[in-house]
What we know:
Residues 515-543 are annotated as: Disordered. Keywords: ATP-binding, Glycoprotein, Kinase, Nucleotide-binding, Serine/threonine-protein kinase, Transferase. It is found in: Membrane. By secondary structure, the chain is an alpha+beta fold. It has 12 helices and 31 strands. The strands form 6 sheets. Strands 1, 2, 3, 8, 11, 14, 15, 16, 17, 18, 20, 23, 26 and 29 form a 14-stranded mixed beta sheet that branches. Strands 4-7-12-9-10 form a 5-stranded antiparallel beta sheet, with no helix packed on it. A hairpin with a 2-residue loop joins β2 (28-30) and β3 (33-37). α7 runs antiparallel to α8 and α8 (474-493) runs antiparallel to α10.
Amino acid sequence: MVIAFILVRIEEAETKSFLINCGTNSSVNVDGRRWVGDTAPGNNVTLSSEGIEAYTASFTGDSLYAPLYTTALVFTDSLNYTFEGTNGSYFLRLHFYPFSFENHNVNDSSFAVEVNGLKLVSECNVPNEIAHKNSYLQSSGGNSSLSTLVKEFFFYVEGDAIVLEFVPTKGSFGFVSAIEIIPVMNKLFVDSVHKVGGNGASSSLNVGKRVIQTMYRLNIGGPTIRPNQDSDLRRTWEMDSSYMVNADAGSEISNNANITYASPNDTSVAPLLVYRTARSMSNTEVMEKRFNMSWKFEVDPGFDYLIRLHFCELVFDMANQRNFRIYIDNQTAADNFDVFVRAGGMNKAYHQDYFDVLSSNIKMLWIQLGPDTATGSAGTDALLNGLEIFKLSKNGNLAYVENYGNQGSSKRSRTSTIWVSIGAEWAMRWQKQRSLETILDPNLDGKYSLESLVRFAEIAEKCLADEGKSRPTMGEVLWHLEYVLQVQEAWLRLDGGDESFAGSRLLRNLEEMHEDAGVDDKQDNLDAKTEDDSEATVRETNRSGAVVVGADEFSQLVSQ
Length: 560
């Protein structure tokens, strides 16, 4: 009996969670769990100082969480929460709902957070982060009206305590609405992971020495999965539509059949709900099935990332029916990817991890899936069920200070987003309609020559020819790109706005200069047109009322 009692006590200690309702001595029931006030007696939590208990009667978010977000602890000096812990892995979630209290304007708050000496965030301004995310999702076509912020971290504890420290920026203050610490009993991460662009090599994550931040967690092709639907670790899985470059590239599919995990060790990796839905290219109207399904994500530059992709073959019951390629950060992460083979059958939940190192000037991470036509499989298709992106700490630091500028309105003020690619097939759709300018960055409006754009698009179109013999050589591509640059520079010298037919003729001497250099044969190859194309002429009127020559007419003009 004594031995049994000891075992029970040990297991209770290992599985103990902390759910803290900050800024109050009252406990509340939210999402089926009891959240204890941080100043309530007997809560097994120690505060280094009292802080300021703040309260609001107004909450604009999900009413389910209203009891949790109407209070907060405000601090003007460094403040520690100390929890009794044991060796092992934990999820830490920090909950924030910004509201002003007394003489504390929440828009002026700024603070850092550390856990057991590992820096999680620095100069955090919650209202700015919420406004920025809403603006980003709205710019992608979403209808985002977030009012709360949750930051999630994964870390390993060596010792008997978890110390969470909040440090306000000098002259400012900080706040926190709720704290959630969940033990992770099963292994979520392995140390050896495929490296993107590593030619099959693997990299060691050294999880025990790192802290990991969840940047994105998506349920691809399905609805939002709430914490009470992920009973093990209480995670939230967002819908993916707001992150897709072109939602039409992947149709939603689902399967209510009995889905099981490919490995018995994966039960905590994701709930089975994630694997019941997916996006597939099988029913989309794309050009010859060479179009990629693409998602793009804002990330912090200069960090290492773990990208986890979730798969489950919901349609085919045999191998070699769906083979595709995976592209991460504009690099091939995997080819000849057959979910049926890797998972060991149909309706088998499976995941694959990839390690990627982002340079200091990349703030946008692209995930793309497209058919691998070289494999000779029966179907040219791709499939994805779920996606997670984790940021890995460097030298004990996860903090990245972002300047969001003035977020008083929903309009994005930051213009440093880098587009790695947009998918050549998508661009060619607009090129064939002679409307490529439709998908250009609005910030470039009035800053480019229509003629240089048309020539650039013609080069790209030739590069995508189905037959290799029809594609230009790299030397030819370089030559024509240099020509496009000269066209643009000449346009700028002509007061940067003369798009008239006469202006086009003035630029003809650039073409003649290149022909004198002995490259007219290359020009002839790239300017070859079908009879239908040569007859098509597109005209439009620019702002000054001058007629702008169309794509085909321009090609004939500069080739005279």
